Amino acid sequence: MKRFGTFGALMAAVALSGSALAAELETDAQKLGYIIGMDIGSSLKQQGTELDLDSQYEAIKATYNGAELAMTPEEAATIREAFIAKRRAAAETEREGMAAANAMEGDKFMLENQSKEGVQVTDSGLQYKVITMGDGPKPAATDKVKVHYRGTLLNGEEFDSSYARGEPISFQLNQVIPGWTEGVQLMPVGSKFMFYIPPDLAYGPGGGGPIGPNATLIFQVELLGIEE
Questions:
Q1: Judging by beta carbons within 10 Å of its beta carbon (0-12, 13-18, 19+), is residue 215 exposed, middle or buried?
Q2: Can you give the pTM of this predicted structure?
Q3: CA–CA separation, 213 vs 96, rounded Å?
Q4: Residue 221, Cβ neighbours under 10 Å: how many?
Q5: Using the 8-state DSSP alphabet, how is residue 125 labeled?
Q6: Residues in CB range of 124: below 8 A, 6 or more apart
Q7: Strand runs labelled E in 109-201
Q8: Annotated catalytic sites, by residue?
Q9: How many Å apart are CA 162 and CA 221, to the nearest integer?
Q10: I need a surface site. Which of 8, 134, 194, 202 has the fewest CB within 10 A?
Q11: Are 178 and 122 in contact (CB under 8 A)?
Q12: Considering Cα of 171, then 175, then 176, then 181, what sign does the dihedral take?
């Protein structure tokens, strides 16, 4: 019974605190200030940057009121540049670790995948499997082709799909990643293949968008036609 009483008193205090805060936001200036503070707080939380909120409030207050600041603009710029450099270095270290892990995972997958039934390997290291073999002509690298496709990472996560968009895509075959340029030339029109593309034939150490550095990619590709 005593525990319940303590909890009830705590909740009452929180409610009174909230009511007092709401009562303080009477003027438009107070409400606007609070809203801007909410926006700043949300942005800082998303960035995940560790900082002292009291110091930030003092800087905002002093700057807004034209009061003397604790540091000069030049000092602030030096500290800011050092902080940005530190963040960049940390991000680069993280990216290098991710690239190494992705490369190792990809090598393991490709080594195991090449021995599976139906999987063929080209001289470049591209692996493919025929799902349906068409009877149309094969495109050249300089041709414009029309395809349906679905791309996934090794964990099965789909990062792109013309099927999901509900319409095929057309492109110049020599203007895409090397794995596609090589692989689609193996396909007669009407074919559907699976491609297993190592990073050196995909987006390499740079990655791109949802594709991490040194990621091995899996594509299901359906060659619908060769366009004029």
A1: buried
A2: 0.69
A3: 8
A4: 22
A5: S
A6: 178, 182, 201
A7: 119-121, 127-132, 144-152, 158-161, 169-172, 192-197
A8: 149, 159-160, 177, 203, 219
A9: 10
A10: 8
A11: no
A12: positive
Do the Cβ atoms of 159 and 143 come closer than 8 Å? no
Q: Token pair for residue 146?
A: 């029309």
Q: For 192-210, write each residue's pLDDT tens digit.
A: 999 999 999 999 999 988 8
Q: Per-residue pLDDT for 18 more than 60?
A: no
Which long-range CB contacts under 8 A does 170-176 form with residues at least 24 apart? 170/144, 170/145, 170/146, 170/227, 171/144, 171/145, 171/147, 172/142, 172/143, 172/144, 173/139, 173/140, 173/141, 173/142, 173/143, 173/144, 173/145, 174/141, 174/142
162: CB partners within 8 A, 6+ apart? 147, 148, 149, 150, 168, 169
d(CA 194, CA 7): 61
Structure tokens at 205: 């150490």
Question: In angstroms, how far is the first alpha carbon of the chain from the final one?
Answer: 83
Q: Which residue has the tokens 């390499």?
A: 204
Nearest by Cα to 19 from 27, 11, 28? 11
